[in-house]
């Protein structure tokens, strides 16, 4: 496979501004137009949001089972980041390729496009599937929609590899990713009359302190030393509320994130916070102002990837990329969604997660080259002994 041609494809992919709030359909159509002439059977799945879609492309001797290679097409915003060059114009410098999504995860998609002709010429003994999703960086709605479609079809893959940046090492487990929005409605009065008002800011602070008590218990619960932080975690990353120093805050909003270990879910922790708010906070708030409220909204709640469901697949993939020990990561992926749909999944792709979402994001040339070699070995295995993956 041609590394220079991979770079040209990556240049085109980065030039599509697929920031999550924008349409991704132009990129999806461009990829579909690359795969269809090779003989891939391409399905474009329209999203509920205008201008967005998933892609699922299949090639092989049969239309059921097989191996899925998956990536997300959206990227995070660049607003406010100090980029040294245009983030949507790929720039090469000293063995690195700079651009938004170069690592997370358009580098992997570029490698798939280079591998596609080889898969199309191969005498595959099981089908190969390419999948691209939308909105992975927000609510993972794209993969949830695609997984539901695959679960009900005759094309459910028997295994999957997601090409998130892992420095081409096989990752067999990741934590879940759940985000909830808390909206507190209080009652504003002059601060000299504070007992006649309800401070939404102070109420929010009490909920946050309560969440820290939950974090203490998380440390006493399940522990998995394969992760850098070996416990589930709860964290408040953004808060906004109030109007002035001398007015009790009418409104306050904050985002709470839970990264639960495989085997644990976020929902019970949220249910605990909800019950505590209803029992301990709301009665006193509403005794002062009936309209006081605490609303909890789920933005996304995606399950973790549990290695107990992919042991065979992980062992088969490791020799293909010179991986000697399987990894576990704390960042969220679509792997748990696929696993819940009945598809054993591992994570393996070019680039470093440490530069993802950052200004001057990059992927190394040697990482792309390693990914191309991995896909070539994978194609050979699909010609000779695909049963090793399943």
What share of the residues lie within helices? 25-40%
Mean pLDDT: 96
**Which fold name is given in CATH as the topology of the largest domain?**
Aminopeptidase
Q: Report how far apart the termini are.
A: 26 Å
Radius of gyration: 23 Å
Number of strands: 15
Task: Work out the strand percent.
Answer: 15-25%
Main sheet: strand order: 1-2-6-3-7-14
> Low-confidence segments, ≥5 residues, pLDDT <50?
none
CATH class of the largest domain: Alpha Beta
Query: What is the number of helices?
Result: 9
Q: Give the CATH H-level superfamily of the largest domain.
A: Zn peptidases
Q: Can you summarize this structure?
A:
This protein is an alpha/beta fold and 390 residues long. The chain has helices at residues 3-15, 25-35, 102-121, 141-151, 200-220, 267-288, 311-317, 335-340, 365-384; strands at residues 41-46, 53-59, 67-72, 91-93, 96-98, 128-133, 159-162, 171-174, 177-185, 233-241, 251-259, 293-302, 327-329, 345-347, 362-364.
Overview of the molecule:
- With 390 residues, the chain is an alpha/beta fold.
- The protein has 2 domains: 257 residues, 3-Layer(aba) Sandwich (Aminopeptidase); 126 residues, Alpha-Beta Plaits (2-Layer Sandwich), CATH 3.30.70.360.
- The chain contains 9 helices and 15 strands.
- The strands form 4 sheets. The protein has a 6-stranded mixed sheet, with helices on both faces.
- A hairpin with a 6-residue loop joins strand 1 and strand 2.
- Helix 1 packs across helix 3 and helix 5 packs antiparallel against helix 6.
- The model has no long low-confidence stretch (mean pLDDT 96).
């Amino acid at each position: 496979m041609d590394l220079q041609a991979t770079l040209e494809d990556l240049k085109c992919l980065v030039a599509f501004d697929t920031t999550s709030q924008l349409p991704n359909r132009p990129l999806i159509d461009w990829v579909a137009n690359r795969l269809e002439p090779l003989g891939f059977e391409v399905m474009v799945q329209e999203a509920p949001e205008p201008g967005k879609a998933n892609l699922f492309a299949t090639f092989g001797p049969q239309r059921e089972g097989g191996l899925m290679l998956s990536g997300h097409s959206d990227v995070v915003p660049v607003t406010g980041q100090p980029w040294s060059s245009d983030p949507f114009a790929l720039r090469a410098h000293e063995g690195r390729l700079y651009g938004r999504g170069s690592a997370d995860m358009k580098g992997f998609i570029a490698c798939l496009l280079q591998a596609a002709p080889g898969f199309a010429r191969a005498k595959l003994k099981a089908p190969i599937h390419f999948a691209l999703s939308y909105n992975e960086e927000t609510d993972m709605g794209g993969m949830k929609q695609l997984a539901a479609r695959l679960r009900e079809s005759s094309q459910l893959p028997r295994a999957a590899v997601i090409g998130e940046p892992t420095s081409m090492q096989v990752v067999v487990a990741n934590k879940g990713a759940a985000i909830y929005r808390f909206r507190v409605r209080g009652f504003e009065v002059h601060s000299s009359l504070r007992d006649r008002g309800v401070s939404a800011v102070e109420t929010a602070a009490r909920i946050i302190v309560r969440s820290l008590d939950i974090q203490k218990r998380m440390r006493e619960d399940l522990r998995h030393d394969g992760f850098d932080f070996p416990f589930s975690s709860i964290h408040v990353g953004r808060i906004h509320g109030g109007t002035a120093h001398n007015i009790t805050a009418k409104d306050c909003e904050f985002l709470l994130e839970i990264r639960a270990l495989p085997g644990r879910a976020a929902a019970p922790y949220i249910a605990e916070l909800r019950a505590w708010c209803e029992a301990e906070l709301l009665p006193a708030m509403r005794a002062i102002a009936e309209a006081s409220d605490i609303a909890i909204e789920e933005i996304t709640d995606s399950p973790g990837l549990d290695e107990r469901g992919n042991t065979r697949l992980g062992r088969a993939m490791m020799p293909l990329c010179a991986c000697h020990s399987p990894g576990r990561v704390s960042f969220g992926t679509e792997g748990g969604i696929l696993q819940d749909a009945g598809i054993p999944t591992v994570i393996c792709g070019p680039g470093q997660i440490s530069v993802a979402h950052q200004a001057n994001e990059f992927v190394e040339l040697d990482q792309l080259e390693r990914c191309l070699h991995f896909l070539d070995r994978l194609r050979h295995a699909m010609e000779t002994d695909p049963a090793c993956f399943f």
